[in-house]
Structures
1.
Amino acid sequence: MAIGLEDKKAIVAEVNETATSALSLVIADARGVEVDGMTALRKEARENQVTLRVVRNTLAKRALEGTDYECVNDTLAGPSLFGFSMEDPGAAARIFKDFAKDNEEFEVKALAVSGQMLGAEQLDVLAKLPTRDQALSMLMSVMQAPATKLVQTMNEVPGKLVRTLAAVRDQKEAAA
């Protein structure tokens, strides 16, 4: 079914708006994936704040103009499923990686982060990025370590004094 000019403009504007606010983009070829699989993928994407779109390549090229993801235009050939990560840069990569394990037909074509295009082989790198909560907990543990070490060091001085006094007491009791 042909899409009218106004509908095309609306699609381009919507994808451009999504791409402008996205943290990362993963592009995959989903030919051969069954409807049940795609439904599960879309559900997983919604739960992880990932926007999935299937857009014609000509419209996608226009929509990505002027965004950080213009670098992927050369990889747009054949059917493309776009996964835009909105809150966590690695969310789309994790979802696509897990989905590809169960579906041999699903193939990741390219990914991009902050205007830099990465090959499909770099999917693991992006998928292993910590989530926001994980990164905050790692940061807090690093910030807490010096304070913990200071408290342990300060606590060691009276502890050593108590152990020394106990040793002197034991020595005097043994002598008596």
Note: The first helix runs from residue 5 to 21.
2.
Amino acid sequence: MDRRTVFNNRLLPYLLLAPQLAVTLVFFYWPASQAAWMSFRLEDAFGLTTEFVGLENFQVLLRDPSYYGAMVNTVVFSGSVAFLSLSLALLLAVMADKQIRGATAYRTLLVWPYAVAPAIAGVFWLFMFQPSLGMIGRTLRGMGVDWNPLLNGGDAMLLVILAATWKQISYNFLFFLAGLQSIPKSLIEAAAIDGARPTRRFWTIVFPMLSPTTFFLLVVNIVYVFFDTFGIIDAITRGGPAKATETLVYKVYNDGRLGGDLGGSAAQSVILMAIVIALTAIQFRYVEKKVTY
């Protein structure tokens, strides 16, 4: 049966869409167009004088070795956070989906970190792992581990990866748990009767049926690590030490807001936006083919 919603007033559908379209235009397309226009201009730090320079900002940016360093940091950071947050969230969701005592409290505690602001999450992890004052940091140094994220770039990168992963696990957990609870138990019971072990049941039945949820979370997590982790990095390392944790989004802020290079910063934001759009398109073009709806 073909079910369609019929509006008596022809203007009503457009009125219902208007608020969302207005938000999209004002907070996405307008800033994006402004950034694209600024990337072709050279401005002073106060925006008082401007000069059209064409592609010069992009040419200078692509000759900057530090930009490629930030790109490498972004690849390492985004790949690690996406993999860890998805893997750990799936493991926790599988455990929470079982019939265990205190399951409700267990699920509630796992959701709480999502309510923490990124900057607060960054400060929280910095306090724990600060080499001289943090409880875990002092314990590691007391055990003979040379731990110092304030001076060691590898330690700093590990710390921001852990903080960003912890912040995102709750979001992924909610969707994985909902996906697990929507899988018919009869399929799993039938496989168990046929002699399939728990591991085989998971990889042949459960995980394939979670593929739509996994694909959705993969797209969301890529956007998260590229943009929403700015507050965590700013609170913990500010891109240091020696730019070891400076990602592409933090370099946009560092060069534009602190360095006063508004045109170069706008060029970076345009490239970053193009990278995220390209990654999303690739996921929909190739990864979605393996999704079973």
Note: The chain has a mean pLDDT of 86.
3.
Amino acid sequence: MKPRRRVAVLVSGRGSNLGALIAAAAVADYPAEIALVLSNVPEAGGLVLARDHGIAAEVIDHRPFGRDRAAHEAAIDARLHEARIGFVCLAGYMRRLTPLLVDRWAGRMINIHPSLLPSFPGLDTHARALAAGVKIHGCTVHEVTAGVDEGPILGQAAIAVRPDDDAHSLAARVLEQEHRLYPAVLRRALEEGGERPQAEPLLSF
């Protein structure tokens, strides 16, 4: 069996998708080891989750860096290299990245977004989807590029929007699909040797 890739997860909040990745990596044949969790928020719940599972969890707070986003990302990049990380997953990391980090990790950094991109990039996706009257909603794993939620799509999962859905209920059902999709796409990305994985057909549940 091939050595498992050392993966870092960047979080800003509770770490729901981090939990799904940790659970997937607990299976013996999964190709990733969640080796490091970094957050820009000292109070992020994802840090507690990681530590509860014996994973190194650290804070690189963005606030001391002021408006110097590149300096903050240089500190993140240095820690990733120090920890011998080979691949990075963003899981609710609420900072727009600069070319410094994006370029250094091109092809080795992915993100999960709660909509069927290219529809509804950015924030408040569930409320916006309901306001638009869409009948199908879902989530997307994509490669991280300089544009917000603009990277190549690596996988998607879709659900039907119910007549009685509100933003809360829709978010909850999409999140269930995120927890299935993200580990599956990460597995495929790593098993393809770090090359850009081919996007799977739309997954519907």
Note: The two ends are 31 Å apart (CA to CA).
4.
Amino acid sequence: MSGFHKLTVKDITRETNQAISIGFDVPESLKDTFVFQAGQYVTLKMVINGQEIRRDYSLCSSPKSGALQVAVKEVKDGTFSSYANTVLKVGDLVEVAPPKGRFIFTPNDSKTKNIAAFAAGSGITPILSIIKCALEEEVHSKVILVYGNKTTSDTMFLDALLKLQQQYKERFSIQFVFSQEDGEDSIFGRIEKSTVNYVMKNKHKHIDVDAFYLCGPEAMIHTVKDVLTANDINKDTIHFELFKAAKPVDVNNDAPAHGNTKITITVDDETTTFDMPQKQTVLEAALDHDLDAPYSCQGGICSSCLARITEGAATMRQNNILTESEVAEGLILTCQAHPTTPTLAVDYDDV
């Protein structure tokens, strides 16, 4: 489940001055392992300057294409993103974990449905995969994209999106939003309440949208969600994935600082039991005991470290992923979870 496979970098494309897309060569023996759904991501692992680095990157290719491609935008002081943008080259080996993630689009060509996507910056990456999948595999469905950036030169996959718009001109509409450029047919500013209302209640008021996909910074996602729900959109039709959270805020301050728990962890069909301090997270304890538990961001933003509690209880100090019903079912982000009972059983395989 959490195993990595060494894949060769097949191609690198410069998308903007600060972003590249990376294609991997997947050998025939691993084709089934790397089958993915639109919207999913892979975890990349490399040793850089003697330190093991893991990062999650969404797949931007469509499942039907057979390609395994991610995009990496260089961020300030970003160890992996800087390396990828300046050092990584075709032919290099990168350890890649199988695709995963819950921000997914499942095509169904027997049903015509319309989707609207809101993306900002590098949040376009999984959205692009979803758009391609919807256009390719649902031949009657329509797609609306609202895409925010600073300028056109900062816009990842601009050419690819314009080509898709030309190819599917009756089914695919793009509304660009630029915060530092006043372009033709674009909106000046950021994706905010007025943007959402204009696109959904004016420009495309004749289209009944069946599902919404949001990806980008937390503030943008909350803005779009709030406007949609204020307009009586069913919250179950709104799907989102954070690419960058706001400053972490403890959502539960009851995590104990003292005491011990006897924890049982199952990962990759192997079960281990040991004592851990409750001030540690489940993931920290697992890694301290050399268990191959899956993880990446360790900040409660991705879902790489997802597991299920099968006995006992734990509290999460932050949760940007799981719904209330999923938490009630026992799902936890182990990088944020502290035990609150004398015994705790956690299963990484049962998710």
Note: Confidence is low (pLDDT under 50) at residues 247-251.
